[in-house]
Amino acid sequence: MKINKIYIPIFFFATLAIGVLLGGFLNFPVDKPSFSKNNYKTKLNRLIDFIDNEYVDNVNTDSIVDLTVNNILEKLDPHSVYIPPTEQTEVAESMKGDFVGIGINFYMYKDSLAVIKPLENGPSEKAGIKAGDRILFAGKTKLYGRNLPSDSLFSKLKGIPGSDIELTIFRKSENKKFKVKLKRDIIPIKSVDVGILLNPETGYIKINRFAETTYDEFQQALTKLRNDHITSLVIDLRDNGGGYMEMASKIADELLKNKDLIVFTKNKKGRIDKTFATERGDFEEGKVSVLINENSASASEILAGAIQDNDRGTIVGRRSFGKGLVQREMDFEDGSAVRLTVARYYTPSGRSIQKSYSHGSEEYFNEFSKRFEDGELYDKDSIKIADTLKFKTKGGKIVYGGGGIVPDIFVPLEVEHGQETTAYLMQSGAVGHFVFEQLDKYRNDFKGLAFAQFLTKMDKSDLYFNNFQKYIGNLGLDLKLYKNKALVKRYLTAEFAKQLFDDEKYYEIILKEDPMVRAVLKD
């Protein structure tokens, strides 16, 4: 079960920044620290008790504590954060890699819970639920016409493995209402989107984050591709905000020789912990390319840095985010948590790729817009690097620290300067929502079409391109899509393919004209 959110493109970078903010940490919690009887440390507790017991009006002291914790953490660094209970459950599930539910992609369309697609082999698909169905009731709880928030919807559909739930369904295509009973089950949340062939020799693996299950998912994809006898591997880390360091290190281990340094960390006491590659690696000999962009951060940068500094492969794309801080998580009894920066990590050459945060979090995350203004997303020569922070790879190549991984092969944004909003819009949730609404009207037009017939239909028609132009206009976006018509049609076709067929077909379409992929295949 997953909600696709609409992101207005002007805030696209801010949204990705949140993923970066929460991404990239050591994968174990720390025990709650014991506090000494220090006046400064007890002052806060005494004040909260004083307010709770004596203040003239009723006050939610929990909210005061949350505000205080946030204010304290804001004084530290942009990645030391407080996660309230309402968000921590979702974050924990995402990093765990699964949850218990009914197995559907959905969103609220005209205040009805609409099924975008049931997940393959999940409880809903097995029960006969189809794309386009509306779920009216979960048990006796009405789910439509109530403006229910997302967390409330999730709570009605989640449960424990094997627990029963009865759903009342309205099938628009047949104009009928019926009930189905199903058992909730463990639903995987994929961190590896696909593992497919780009050509007979080249495999492609897309990693969207580094969760508990990422290494196993990567291994499954790599094994399948090795069975196809690939000699070259492309690992796509674009828009991957990070996650567990250990997963990035384990994947690097599959690509590097025995005893190659992968990463090391250093804490405030000067303790250094190094991670080395081990003897066994499933892809130590073939060609490796890693795709990164301005939203690749933390664990993504660990993997890219290990490949670059060991001269193991080629980094392709644009300068990465620049997050070299490591967090540990401390959980509280109320379900909230604090992620505290406890160390810095360094790539094998010894460079820290952490960009400056000396002017505060707002400027730190707004650095995205500065890259636009400076022209960095279009011209490699516009990348500002610290010439004083020079390091050498194992083979003697010069690399730089102090602000992300600079790619070996630079690939600019696909659109012209000033058209960035269109590029990011096409990767936002708005496209998925639009396609669902179109299929809700025209689903029968695609019935029985083979994939090749589908591609021909989409190529010959401008219907959906024109409809999408109207759709974003209704969202309040004044964009002239015809300036990037080929790009827009490609992403629309891919999203239709995802909802009608599967994720592999989506990537087949997207990657065919992908500038970074083309740069790899030409190299």
From TrEMBL:
Gene3D superfamilies: 2-enoyl-CoA Hydratase, Chain A, domain 1, 2.30.42.10, 3.30.750.44. It holds the Pfam family Peptidase_S41. One of its GO terms (biological process) is proteolysis. Residues 175-357 form the Tail specific protease domain. One of its GO terms (molecular function) is serine-type peptidase activity. The keyword rRNA-binding does not apply. Keywords: Hydrolase, Membrane, Protease, Serine protease, Transmembrane, Transmembrane helix. One of its GO terms (cellular component) is outer membrane-bounded periplasmic space. The chain crosses the membrane at residues 6-28. Belongs to the peptidase S41A family. NCBIfam families: prc. This is Carboxyl-terminal processing protease. It comes from Flavobacterium noncentrifugens.
